Amino acid sequence: MVHTPRPARRGALLVSTAAALGLLAGCGNGSGEDVHSGPPASSAGTAAPARETPSPSASAPAASSAPVSSAPARTASPAPPGTTAPSGGTTAAPATPAGGSRCHTSELRASLGRNDPGAGQENFPVVLTNTSGRTCTLRGYPGAAFVNASGGQLGADPRRTPGTPVTVTVRPGQSAWAGLTFSNPEVSGARSAAPAALLVTPPDERDPLRAAWPGGPVPVSGTASSVRLTVLSPGTGP
C-alpha cells in the first residue's frame, strides 16, 4: 500500500473541491440568467432582508379636495321698486296713499264765493282750489287777514268757530272751502274799513295767497267787530 504524503492529500482535496464548485457555477437555465432570484447572502451567511419599495399609494399623501368655504351663502338683494326682479318679473313700486300729501301754497289758488247774507250777517265762502297736477289734502282751518292796498292788515285775525277738522282730499281742479262770517258794520255800528284783498294761508303753510275782496266794508274795531272762520269742507261752498 502506497501512502500519499499528507501535504499531497490536502492538495488533491482542494483541487477536487474547486472542480465541484466550478461545475455548479456552470449550471444555469440555458438563457444566461441566474435562476436564483432571491437577495444575495449577507456577510453572516444569511439572506439579507428584501428592501421594501414604498408603494406610491402608501407614501404619497392623499389628494385633498378643494377647500370648502365656510362663509355663509350670500343672499340676493331685493330688487328696488319698479325694477325687474332676478326671476324676470317686475317688482311693483309702493302704492301712493290715496289721500296724497298735504297741499302747499304754490299748488293752490284762493278765491271768494258768493255772499249769502242773513239776519245782519255776511257769509262768504273762502275757496282753495288745487291747481297742481297731483292729488293733495287740506285739513283744519286756513289763516285769513283783511289788508288794504298797501298790504297793511285791517282789524284782528279772524276767530275760529268751534268745529271738527276733517281731511279733505282735493284732486287737480277740485276745491275745499271755509266759511268767513261777520256782522254787517252798518247794523252793528262797528268801525269799518274797505279791504283791497283777503290774504288766505292754507293749513300748515306759511306763505299766503291773495284774493280780491268783493264784499265792501268789514268791521275792524269796536262792538261786534269779530270775524269768524270755520274748518275746511269739500267743495266750493254751501
Automatic annotation (TrEMBL):
The cross-references to InterPro entries, in alphabetical order and at most eight, read:
DUF4232 (IPR025326)
- Signal peptide boundaries: 1-25
For region Disordered, the annotated ranges are 24-105
Highest rank taxon of the organism: Bacteria
Output compositional bias ranges, type Low complexity. 37-77, 84-102
Residues forming the DUF4232 domain are 103-219
Q: Which UniProt keywords apply?
A: Signal
User: What name does UniProt use for this protein?
Assistant: DUF4232 domain-containing protein
Organism per entry: Streptomyces lavenduligriseus
